[in-house]
Fold each of these.
Amino acid sequence: MRYFLNHLRKSFKEDILMTSPNRQVDPEGVKDLEEQCKVSKEDKVSAVVNDPKFGMLTLFHYHWMHPERAKEYSITYCTHVFSLLSALPLLVFTSQWMMWFALVLYQMKSYTQGNCPMTGSTEGKMIMFGVSAVYFVRSFFLWDNLITRMHMKRSMPAISLTVILDTFHEFGFNVLVYGANLMLVFIQPSVPEMIMNSLAMEFLMQLDNEFKSMYFDYLPDIAEDIYDNLFQPYEKHQALVEEACNGSRIFKWIRCLTVVPFKLLMMTLMLFPVMCFVFMFYSPICK
């Protein structure tokens, strides 16, 4: 237990936007930066897909800054061409948040029975306990996912607003989806609607990651280009962030302002298992 508490204390002090040189996780199998050329294309694609700092906003920014990449393929892929012309990554990003807000607001407006109505059916209480128990188990994997993806060998440098927003979205949206799912299942009286709302939220959470996976399945050379030219190791990452802060007072202020939200996010992830554990007993009783 002392080791675990020490792990939480160290993790809380770290910056989500930066890697840590003394706790690196190396999914690509690279032991030295000079051996970068030995990394396979599949590992580079996996690194780009799994990096939380390279999300929908950063992907669209990459398209905006490198439109010539669409002309380098003998086969024209619609996903690549229209990712820029129709802003497909931005559509995915905005759709996730709009549908999340719509589902939550609709259910909140239609619910009038209070915090502990105790009017639910036995089947509904069983579903509520099951969902809470599953999320209690998943909450530990959610934390491990954060730690693992924070300490990759190479990652996208956090030197732009799009990277910062993508990072917060990747971890924050997952917590919001799980929290909203618990609330929606609690307030729904019908068992089929409870299950459908739960599945709808899970669908929302995976939209951006599914888009990245499918996109780079068709265009692995794009992922390789991103990995080789944009992703950086810790030392270079740190130097680029310092250079960006020194070169732009606005960016320096943005970095300072995001410290509190990211610390709150980490605290929420730490406390999320406790909330799920409480819900395992509170929700079946009060539903």
Note: The radius of gyration is 21 Å.
Amino acid sequence: MLKKKTDINDNDIDLIDLLKKCWNYKSYLIVITLFCLIISSIYSETKSKEFSSKIRLVSPNYLPVNSPDLKYDSENMFSEINYFINFNFYLKSSENFSNFLKSKNYQFENKEYIGIKDTENNDNFSIIFTENIDGVKILNEYIEFTKQKSKEELVKKIKFKKLNMIKILERSILIAEKANFTTPQIVNLYTYSLNSPKLFTSFYLGTTVLNELLEQNIKDLAEADNLEFNHDPVLVYPESSFKIGLSLKNYLINGFIIGLCLSFLTIFLLIVSKNRS
């Protein structure tokens, strides 16, 4: 029992002795911590201040952007959902953002920058920029640029599909005329889709139906360039920007903690070195 108490007292003495030794190097503690605080302060003042601006997206059927039920509608190419999917894809594309900046001839100084900011919520979209850039104005312009881009790409897909369908229908009409099919052949009515007829089955529709489909596709092709969408993919537009990143206070706290750690590490190494010598 006496031995155990002695061990405890020895440990107390060692700890007190260690603290005394550390106190002898208090100048290192003060200098290193003060140095880290100064460096943190300088870094905080010289670092470019970053701001962010964001928007919120909304799909036509109000499903989350990353919902597996939000799928491209290949049957109805004019679908608002297709337009929204296109918009969401191009909005978050770094290449599209770069093309937008080039198209507007935006040029920034060495320390200025703007880019797409990663967000955890897929229904949101944000950009990050330095303080001398009007990020809200640029984001609003980028939204309109992406809307136009999304529409143009969707129109290209519609035209491509309609042209293919017109070719198939024209060939099917020739086959139907040779087979003398003027009306649909009932046996084969359910072997195809009217929205995507195939050459080896569509001639069973007969020339009457095929000509109607041909006229409709020619009309759709002519009206594709005038395609308009009523759904606005942006629910909340950017109105103001907000500062992001650490404040001066946070930098000073981090500097103080780093300074203490470096100080104690330096003092420990000095004590160990002195004891060995």
Note: Residues 1-8 have pLDDT under 50 and may be disordered.
Amino acid sequence: MSRDCLLLNGNGKPVSFFPLSVINWKTAVKLLLARNVILIKVHDDQYVRSPSISIELPSILMLKRFHKFHNYVKFSRSNVFLRDMYTCLPKSKNGLTNWENVVTSCKSFNSAKGSSLQKPIREPFKPSFSHLLNGHKIDENTFPDSEWAKYIF
């Protein structure tokens, strides 16, 4: 069973969708002990023990303060994969590393193409936040706790 914890913003929504704001159990316990979060739900029958204290492992935490969420899409490798839906596309052209020039490519295709220029299947573009959100499927069956779906969808 996973010991991950869903971190919610002060308004009850996930802090981030890309990637989903999931933190490990150690970070969750530190936030809880520092009193920076409100405990919403704990994992059933899972504890962290020390000689002087026993703490139930948190499953859902909410920040006490609201952190402003930016609606722009940062250029990153993971966001390029989200934009291209994890499909193999050849690199567009030589030059700058930006939204209009980078596409995903599987290792075998990239090796075979070498340094030759290939026309991509789809022209690369700078995605909007809603484009990434609509194209990204979150499977609630993979959540460590079924209660997470109430806060994500």
Note: Helices lie at 25-33, 77-83, 107-113, 129-135, 148-152.
